[in-house]
Amino acid sequence: MSLPRTLPAALACAALTAVLAGCGAGGDGSGSSAAPTSAGAAEPSAVPTQAKVDALAAKVPQSVSADGKIVFGTDASYPPNEFTGPDGTTIEGMDIDLGTAVAQKLGLTAEFQNSAFPGIIPGIQGGKYELGMSSFSINPERLQTVDMVSYFSAGTAVGVKSGNPDNINPDDLCGKAVGVQAGTVQVDDIAERNSKCTAEGKPAIQVTELQAQTDVTLALTANRIVAMLADTPIVDYAVKTTEGAVESVGQPYDSAPYGIVLNKGQTDFAQAVQGAVQSMMEDGTYLTILDKYGVSNGAIPSAEINPSV
């Protein structure tokens, strides 16, 4: 978001179908639309409750631990990483399970508040959220203003309608109608691609920028765009849950780690979060959660604070 973000999840407003229906489905007259369904949603399988690690809990600032919880900002429109469950209220997903386990390792509970993606980092800086966990790709621009603890790796993938009827070449999107989610790294990607199109005398990409990734996926299946750019787990999940309406073309590119976001300069808190993630990697909880959502190919071997990217 505003920097790379990613995919897989289960729904986003009451099983992807409800989420997308709520955004308004419908084609442009050029063909039938096929909205994503909840098929393949992760089962609510058991993620082991984590025991408090006293040495890590001691590093959490009293301003955070005083109320017994950690408040996370997340954008629940990015299945399977973060999405709204079938009841239309509960936030679920890989990031939610991982964040919940991090909080438990620190002797606290996790509270996830739904937010538009571009508002999460400002919300952390303003004290509304204590952590941000929403498929944030770590990049130099973000590290100038916040600290980040790595926990996953994802690249950008190109999603198209099944069978690629528009003959989309992922290396040349000039003149094509392409959708991205606002605030993601894919927005910057499209801008760079457009500069190249212009320099080569080709038509500009027709960009559709929407607030929710679920809306971008719907725009693709409803024939309002011919391709979308999103994180690899997101496109992979769309392929699995749109009843054959979406496929991925080309190879993922620009892989980068995801990071849990903290206010700049909270050294002890960052060490506590990093230690909690590393502890999960070592005791097996980390892979259990990734396997639950089918995204274990994005696993990384260790968690780092502000890794070089």
Topology order in helix (H) and strand (E) letters = HHHEEEEHEHEHEEHEHEHEHH
CATH architecture of the largest domain: 3-Layer(aba) Sandwich
- Tell me the number of structural domains: 2
Straight-line distance between termini: 16 Å
Q: Level of helix content?
A: 25-40%
State the total count of DSSP E strands. 11
The CATH homologous superfamily of the largest domain is termed Periplasmic binding protein-like II
Percentage beta strand:
15-25%
Low-confidence stretches: 1-45
Tally of separate helices = 11
Rounded average pLDDT: 86
User: What is the CATH topology descriptor of the largest domain?
Assistant: D-Maltodextrin-Binding Protein, domain 2
- Which structural category fits the helices and strands? alpha/beta
Shape: globular
Major β-sheet annotation: 5 strands, mixed
Strand numbers in spatial order across the main sheet: 9-8-10-7-11
Radius of gyration: 19 Å
Pfam family, one: SBP_bac_3
Keywords: Signal
Protein name: ABC transporter substrate-binding protein
InterPro entries: Solute-binding_3/MltF_N
List its salient traits.
ABC transporter substrate-binding protein, five-stranded mixed sheet, 23% strand, D-Maltodextrin-Binding Protein, domain 2, Solute-binding_3/MltF_N, alpha/beta, 11 strands, disordered N terminus, signal, 309 residues, three-stranded parallel sheet
Structure description:
It is built from 11 helices and 11 strands. It is α/β, with parallel strands linked by helices and 309 residues long. The protein folds into 2 domains: 54-154 and 256-298, Periplasmic binding protein-like II (D-Maltodextrin-Binding Protein, domain 2, 3-Layer(aba) Sandwich), CATH 3.40.190.10; 156-254, D-Maltodextrin-Binding Protein, domain 2 (3-Layer(aba) Sandwich), CATH 3.40.190. The strands form 3 sheets. Strands 9-8-10-7-11 form a 5-stranded mixed beta sheet, with helices on both faces. Strand 2 and strand 3 (82-84) form a beta hairpin. Helix 4 packs across helix 10 (267-283) and helix 4 runs antiparallel to helix 11. The protein starts with 14 loop residues before the first helix and ends in a 17-residue tail after the last helix. Mean pLDDT is 86; it is low at 1-45.
